[in-house]
Amino acid sequence: MSVTADERVAPPYGIICKQFQRGGVVPFLGAGASLTVHGDDVKFDGNDPKFLPRADELSDWLADECEFPPNEQHDLAKVASYFQVRATREELVDYLRQVFSRDYPIGAIHRFLAEVPKPMLIVTTNYDDLLERAFEEAGKPYHLVMYPDSDELAGAVLWWKPGVKEPERHAPSVLPLNVDEATVIYKMHGSIRRAEEQQKWDSFVITEEDYVRFLSRMTAKGGAIPSRFMLHIRNSSLLFLGYGLRDWNFRVMLEKLRRTFGRDDAVSPPSDDDDAEPLLAAQQGTKRSWAVQWRPSQLERILWDSRNVQIFDQDLSVFADALRKKMKS
After folding, report:
1. pLDDT exceeds cutoff 70 at 245
2. Domain span at residue 262?
């Protein structure tokens, strides 16, 4: 049974705004946060992109380019792996750069986050730079931390301080970054770097092999997510924006977070030892988490509910505008 607009339950805007004002919420931005509305009859063309693609649209385009066998071309990770085998990693990155290094319109949710006065940690698995551009247009300083996909930088994250051009390399367990000083944008699956001198830092977790390496690092000692971020996430409410639960890699990441929050053991402060145990900590049972997703399926509703996350069916632009009004009231 479909749900009409009048039957949709509204998100608790006041409660969420209070959390933003206190610095007590961590937004997670998925692919849906970067999408503009376009009809299903408008075909995405990566050779001349007019809008950011959905995962299935990007997958279909790459599949056409590399003559991927039919029937499974909606699986982006599998198609990207096949593309890399048929071509090279460098050519795959060139194709992705062609799509993501453009001035797409900044979304309402990105602008809202850039307006929030309290510093926060923002986590995103998107490759685009809409968040960075929103903060730059708003004149707000931010730290950028990125997971690198290269073997040369394995076991590290890259950290760009506000306004600098070159990143520092740090082990996730000892990244000396205070989340309370300025907003931190953590690009969990890599990102596009548009400036020519910055393109060497382009990173994309996109193939099946990339996801296996990333997820194995998440579960290994030292982790893929900086320890200070894990501590902050543990003590915050989570707000998932534009995520669907059909992607197995995102469900594995959520399971990792769930297990982290479910541990009863105490934690220690960061150590100078690169192999220090990450800050994985006690339960988050008193913290409420939410997800905002446009037209979630019944399966996704069940999956969110099973993870103790309240799911709301709403367009993210409407959600951002409502939060902005509540914040100003």
Report:
1. yes
2. 12-36+107-328
Q: Are residues 50 and 163 in the same domain?
A: no
Residue 58's CB: how many other CB atoms inside 10 A? 24
Residue 173 lies in a domain: yes
Q: Do the domain assignments include residue 1?
A: no
- Please report the pLDDT score of residue 306 as a whole number: 85
Tell me: pLDDT of 122 over 90.
yes
Judge if 62 and 183 occupy the same domain.
Answer: no
| Inter-residue long-range contacts of 5-10, CB under 8 Å, 24+ positions, other chains counted | 8/312, 8/313, 8/314, 9/312, 10/312, 10/314, 10/322
Mean pLDDT for the stretch of residues 108-134? 96
Residue where a domain terminates, one of 83, 103, 123: 103
Contacts of 115 (CB under 8 A, 6+ apart): 138, 324, 327
Cα separation, 212 vs 208, whole angstroms: 6
Summarize pLDDT for 264-296 with one digit per residue, the tens. 333 333 443 333 333 323 334 457 899 999 889
pLDDT, one tens digit per residue, over 201-219 is 999 999 999 998 888 887 7
Residues 130, 107: Cα–Cα separation, whole Å: 7
Tell me which residue of 192, 194, 210 sits closest to 202, measured CA to CA. Answer: 192
Residues 37-53: tens digit of each pLDDT: 665 678 899 999 999 99
Which pLDDT value is given to residue 308?
86
